[in-house]
Amino acid sequence: MYQRALLRELGLRSIRATAEASFAINYKGHSVGEYFADILVEDELVVELKCVERLANEHIAQCLNYLRASGRTLCPLVNFQKPTVEWKRIVHGFPIPGTREGHFQVAHQARRFSVP
């Protein structure tokens, strides 16, 4: 339901988005499967949608896997479970001062949205 609503909203704003975008997984030069991200926006932004009590490390790992497989760097992880929409911005591939290169960043935000 949230995926369809978000796709509709993006379409109304003339923003190109694809549901269930697939990314090939290769191992030593051979295709071994696919990942399916909830939404790919403008062929650049991977969006992962959840409806869970709270976002967990497994959800962050899932976003990182999508980013690695797709070669993209940014994945908003959005949780619609509560009246306050929670989201985390997962960034992959940018060095963070004081860490090894290739680590990731997570920014957290919660916002209350009213539904008409």
Distance between the termini: 16 Å
Radius of gyration: 15 Å
Strand order of the largest sheet: 1-2-3-4-5-6
Task: Tell me what portion of residues adopts beta-strand conformation.
Answer: over 45%
Using the 3D structure, state the CATH architecture. Answer: 3-Layer(aba) Sandwich
CATH topology: Trna Endonuclease, Chain: A, domain 1
* Largest beta-sheet details: 6 strands, mixed
Q: Mean pLDDT across all residues, rounded?
A: 81
Strand segment tally: 6
**Number of domains in the coordinates?**
1
What is the ordering of alpha helices and beta strands? HEEEHEEE
Number of helices: 2
Q: What is the share of helical residues?
A: 10-25%
What's the CATH C level? Answer: Alpha Beta
Structural class by SSE content: alpha+beta
Question: What is the 3D shape?
Answer: globular
Uncertain spans, ≥5 residues at pLDDT below 50? 112-116
